[in-house]
Specification:
Order of helices and strands: HHHHHHHHHHH
Number of domains: 2
Number of strands: 0
Strand content: under 5%
Largest sheet: none
Distance between the termini: 55 Å
Number of helices: 11
Radius of gyration: 24 Å
Structural class: mainly alpha
Helix content: over 70%
Length: 297
């Protein structure tokens, strides 16, 4: 699990760094050309074929557009990996999903910079369809993680969830002997049995609300453990981690059926949006080469 988290964190950092670099280059090319990264590279004899010009189809922004579009096409390999068992040996499905989401976020970011924030006609339609698809993808990932899975990405059965919760209690009792663990556990917000009766929209908002609320409650829990018990920092950290895992398991178990319904409705909306996005994207490329090149020749 730690390796998977490390992989996902590395992708998040890469998205952040790329966005910062592209944002800096966009700003400097538009307002301070001599401070841009491309100008610096020109001074050292690199990328001289790419002029410093802030236009969608010129300079590096044309290449960035192609790079972003290619990423959005490559990300569809996840669907191939998921549907055909012959590719099971090509890495875990969890890593493939993380890469799919990474490309699904990075691609639209690069395409956005490619547009130089100039929208109109079919480009505007393609852009907003892409943005909506990206946010639906992020939401899909959020719903996906509400369903408990093992390290390989296989969904856990209810009895397996109960066994994991019991094993967490055993580990907690080893750290906190003669302590009522249930009192500490109450510090974390979870979903009770009533959550099963919520409709899908209410359930989704409840999930998000609970996660936001727990950001504060986990901080409070850390303070409670630190002030109430004389434990080493490593031990306190492990106790909080175990309590968080148990709370997540209980919530996931109570929302299991609802999460499946949410994921079903998500597929119904996300897949057609992605299809429309790709159709408009290819139309945009075709129109550019039919009319853009013909005008320049």
């Amino acid at each position: 699990m730690k390796k998977d988290n490390t992989f996902e964190k590395a992708l998040i950092v890469l998205i952040f760094i790329t966005t910062c670099i592209a944002g800096f280059e966009a700003f400097t090319q538009k307002y301070l050309p001599e401070n841009s990264i491309l100008y610096f590279l020109h001074q050292h004899g690199y990328l001289n074929n790419y002029p410093i010009i802030y236009e969608p189809s010129k300079g590096i922004w044309h290449v960035i557009g192609w790079t972003g579009s290619s990423m959005m096409i490559i990300m569809m390999l996840y669907s191939v990996r998921k549907r055909f068992s012959i590719f099971n040996s090509l890495g875990s499905l969890r890593h493939w999903l993380s890469a799919h989401i990474f490309l699904g976020i990075m691609g639209p970011i690069l395409v956005t910079f490619h547009t130089t924030f100039k929208f109109g006609g079919i480009i505007a339609t393609s852009f907003w369809c892409m943005i909506v698809t990206m946010f639906f993808g992020i939401m899909g990932r959020y719903i996906y993680v509400q369903i408990p899975r093992d390290l390989s990405g296989t969904e856990l059965e209810t009895n397996e969830i109960d066994k994991i919760a019991e094993s967490l209690d055993i580990k907690l009792s080893q750290y906190l002997k003669n302590v009522n663990i249930s009192d500490l556990f109450k510090e974390i917000s979870i979903a009770d049995e009533k959550a099963k009766s919520l409709n899908v929209i209410s359930a989704l908002f409840f999930m998000i609300k609970t996660d936001i609320k727990n950001l504060y409650r986990i901080t409070h829990l850390k303070n409670v453990i630190r002030t109430r018990y004389h434990l080493k920092g490593r031990v306190r950290k492990e106790i909080v981690s175990l309590l968080k895992k148990k709370a997540a398991l209980i919530r996931q178990k109570n929302f299991l059926a609802t999460s499946h319904r949410l994921l079903h409705y998500w597929h119904v909306l996300h897949v057609p949006l992605a299809v429309v996005m790709f159709i408009i994207m290819f139309l945009h490329i075709i129109v550019y080469y039919l009319f853009g090149i013909s005008r320049s020749s």
